């Protein structure tokens, strides 16, 4: 219901039949709801003000009526009877309550939880200002004399109802509870029962698990009788009391018999066991007191003296080894043993001759003489090795409790990490144990020496403060120095298995990264007595795409530099094409390969602890892949390695890869891997043999590769005439011998036609 006053009406009466929302927007008016439920508006002026300066007075006389008023709060009003109820009007707000708005500027209608309708007795009493009352509503106070702001949390009225003490006057009987005091009565009965110590349940001893009355006394009587029995009820014998072997004691009968034998008297003669007999007894056995017939003090004292003498192991008779009288029984189980004085020098004993007890083992006349020098087999698994460039420190530490090595026949055991710092000097460093001390030196070790335990080597880049490589050199003492020198100087490392290149996009698109990448399979090779195992991720990534560092020489002295590993086994320079390692003007440098030309990358397996697969940059450029293939043979036979030539016997050649580089290629290295002129993906050196820097060593012409190429003059010997099968390509030439007669021809394929010329 909406009430609007638009004229000089002093009093308007509206019948109220339900709770209504009333908007009042008048000046000096009164709204009265009387007991009959009628709404009476008394109006004293005909003007209507939208923003009145004097608010209307509202009086509620019907406790079941509700008037909710909202105002804009801009006029600074602070009494309830002056508030303007204008925000939304009263229409549609039946059964809602009045609360202060969230911004505390006006009153708003809110739904009362539970949907109940509430009316107030009197609206003349007004609460305080709305400040701090956001979200609260109007309610009759506890004393029902005033209105107050309250929080409507859930159903506030319902909660107040629940908080009341039994508002419905429910009785115990109605709720099914015991009458008041019944529990106390039961508790009293229970307390009385528990305090009853007169066994109200008549529990017997048997029921409680106790012995009958008097049983303990009976058992005690039986025990007293038994302990007072001195007639040996347990039939204890002397052997039970003295559980000793017959060899340890002799009886009086044995003693008497021995005395008769010593005195030479007849068995019928009665011989007492006394001091005379004891003095004659030299059998080396103690006499048990239980079997001793003598009772005099002297006899007992003599017995004690005899027993003490028998137990004396200090050789009181000064018996020598020659007088031992070693009987067969004492030798039993001592075959091939020698007689030694025991550790305390108090007795002799049988022992096997221990090798370490002998003297002169280091003399050359000993047929099993070997002076150990180096490491035990598998010793590399007992240590960890590392080099820290920042401090130039090499460290070898036990991976467990300790590690061992031999120097000049002496075993050394280390339980803590051993380290050495190299000087900041360019070049190779050799690290080894000399006795107990870890040494780093730039003097190449002499592998003929038999007093050093080799550990590692490294190449130090003093300009860039980094190392080019750090190798594994823990050779075993089993390999003598002469054998080591022969294998190192004349044989070098030998391929064992694996290490093939794969995942190659050979002759691919130079715009693709895959065209300049490859992987390396797991494998191994021997460096003299060391088996070097190369595996992906341990520690170098090799599978899918291998990450291989590139080594090259620089400057007038040809120092070695390393380009850190990337997914490309090649590097660039100049305008971005591939580089080759050129020696020009008396110095080494990186030179850009000419556009559309070729360069080689030589792949080696090494004993490096960090990156065992390396690439050495090619030292020439080529204008065709046929020339590059031929150049691979030359370069691998004659690589100029400088300091690394000392280490080449530690490496095994794996492959040479031909790269073509062009300005038009857009991958990161402007290069791609190309096949050889024979169609192979790369030149494979793994199965080649040779010594030190030579990798070919092929002596049979038929074993050479590339002999079918146009640049190789072929020689055939057959009864048949030469055909295009033998010389398939235009320009193929060779020599032909007709085996039916001494006829030799030069043969060439000219545009698919075989032509020959007779040789005279």
Helical fraction equals: 10-25%
Main β-sheet, in a few words?
Answer: 7 strands, mixed
Low-pLDDT runs = 1-88, 114-126, 270-288, 290-295, 690-705
Mean pLDDT: 73
Straight-line distance between termini:
137 Å
Q: What percentage of the residues does DSSP assign to strands (E)?
A: 25-35%
Radius of gyration (CA) equals 58 Å
Structural class: alpha+beta
How many individual helices? Answer: 12
Topology, number of strands: 40
Note the overall shape: flat
Explain how this protein is built.
The chain is α+β, with helices and mostly antiparallel strands and 760 residues long. It is 14% helix and 28% strand. The chain has 12 helices and 40 strands. Strands 27, 28, 32, 33, 34, 35 and 36 form a 7-stranded mixed beta sheet that branches. The chain is flat, with a radius of gyration of 58 Å. Mean pLDDT is 73; it is low at 1-88, 114-126, 270-288, 290-295 and 690-705.
Features:
40 strands, seven-stranded mixed beta sheet, alpha+beta, about 750 residues, 12 helices
């Amino acid at each position: 219901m909406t009430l609007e006053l638009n004229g000089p009406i002093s009093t308007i009466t509206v019948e109220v039949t339900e709770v209504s929302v009333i908007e009042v927007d008048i000046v000096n008016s009164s709204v009265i709801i009387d007991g009959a439920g009628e709404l009476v508006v008394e109006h004293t002026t005909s003007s209507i003000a939208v923003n009145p300066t004097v608010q209307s007075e509202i009086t509620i006389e019907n406790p079941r009526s509700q008037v909710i008023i909202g105002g804009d709060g801009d006029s600074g009003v602070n009494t309830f009877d002056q508030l303007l109820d204008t925000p939304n009007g009263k229409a549609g707000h039946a059964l809602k309550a009045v609360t202060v708005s969230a911004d505390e500027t006006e009153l708003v209608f809110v739904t009362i939880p539970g949907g109940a309708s509430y009316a107030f007795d009197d609206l003349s009493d007004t609460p305080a200002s709305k400040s701090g009352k956001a979200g609260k509503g109007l309610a009759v106070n506890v004393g029902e004399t005033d209105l107050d702001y309250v929080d409507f949390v859930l159903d506030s009225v319902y909660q107040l109802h629940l908080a009341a003490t039994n508002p419905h006057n429910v009785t115990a009987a109605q709720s099914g509870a015991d009458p008041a005091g019944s529990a106390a009565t039961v508790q009293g009965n229970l307390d009385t029962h528990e305090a009853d110590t007169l066994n109200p349940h008549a529990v017997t001893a048997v029921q409680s698990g106790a012995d009958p009355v008097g049983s303990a006394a009976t058992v005690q009587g039986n025990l007293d009788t038994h302990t007072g029995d001195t007639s040996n009820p347990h039939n204890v014998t002397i052997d039970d009391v003295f559980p000793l072997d017959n060899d340890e004691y002799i009886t009086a009968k044995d003693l008497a018999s021995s005395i008769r034998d010593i005195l030479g008297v007849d068995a019928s003669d009665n011989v007492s066991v006394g001091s005379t007999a004891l003095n004659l007894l030299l059998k080396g056995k103690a006499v048990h007191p239980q079997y001793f017939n003598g009772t005099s003090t002297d006899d007992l004292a003599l017995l004690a003296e005899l027993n003490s003498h028998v137990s004396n192991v200090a050789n009181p008779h000064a018996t020598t080894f020659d007088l031992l009288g070693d009987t067969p029984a004492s030798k039993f189980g001592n075959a091939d043993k020698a007689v030694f004085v025991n550790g305390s020098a108090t007795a002799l004993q049988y022992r096997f001759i221990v090798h370490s007890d002998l003297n002169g083992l280091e003399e050359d006349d000993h047929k099993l003489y070997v002076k150990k020098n180096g490491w035990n087999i598998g010793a590399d698994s007992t240590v960890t090795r590392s080099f820290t460039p920042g401090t130039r420190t090499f460290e070898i530490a036990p991976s467990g409790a300790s590690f061992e090595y031999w120097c000049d026949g002496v075993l050394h055991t280390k339980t803590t990490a051993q380290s050495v710092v190299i000087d900041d000097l360019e070049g190779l460093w050799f690290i080894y144990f000399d006795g107990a001390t870890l040494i780093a030196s730039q003097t190449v070790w002499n592998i003929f020496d038999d007093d050093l335990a080799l550990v590692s080597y490294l190449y130090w880049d003093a300009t860039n403060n980094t190392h080019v490589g750090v190798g594994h050199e823990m050779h075993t003492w089993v390999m003598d120095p002469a054998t080591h020198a022969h294998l190192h100087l004349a044989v070098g490392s030998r391929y064992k298995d694996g290490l093939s290149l794969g995942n190659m996009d050979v002759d691919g698109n130079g715009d693709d990264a895959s065209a300049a990448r490859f992987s390396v399979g797991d494998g191994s090779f021997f460096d003299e007595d060391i088996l070097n195992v190369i595996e992906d991720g341990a520690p170098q990534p090799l599978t899918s795409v291998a990450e291989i560092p590139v080594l090259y020489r620089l400057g007038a002295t040809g120092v070695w530099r390393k380009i850190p590993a990337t997914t490309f086994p090649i590097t660039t320079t100049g305008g971005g094409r591939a580089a080759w390692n050129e020696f020009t003007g008396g110095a080494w440098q990186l030179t850009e390969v000419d556009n559309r030309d070729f360069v080689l990358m030589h792949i080696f397996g090494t004993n490096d602890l960090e990156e065992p697969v390396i690439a050495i940059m090619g030292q020439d450029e080529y204008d065709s892949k046929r020339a590059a293939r031929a150049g691979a043979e030359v370069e691998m036979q004659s690589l100029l390695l400088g300091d690394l030539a000392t280490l080449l016997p530690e490496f095994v050649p794996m492959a040479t890869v031909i790269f073509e580089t062009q300005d038009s290629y857009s991958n990161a290295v402007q290069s791609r891997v190309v096949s050889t002129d024979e169609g192979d993906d790369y030149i494979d050196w793994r199965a080649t043999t040779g010594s030190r820097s030579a990798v070919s060593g092929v002596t049979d012409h038929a074993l050479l590769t590339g002999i079918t190429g146009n640049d190789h003059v072929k020689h055939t010997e057959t009864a048949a005439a030469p055909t295009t099968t033998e010389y398939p390509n235009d320009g193929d030439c060779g020599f032909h011998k007709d085996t039916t007669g001494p006829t030799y021809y030069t043969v060439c394929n000219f545009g698919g036609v075989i032509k020959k010329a007779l040789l005279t």
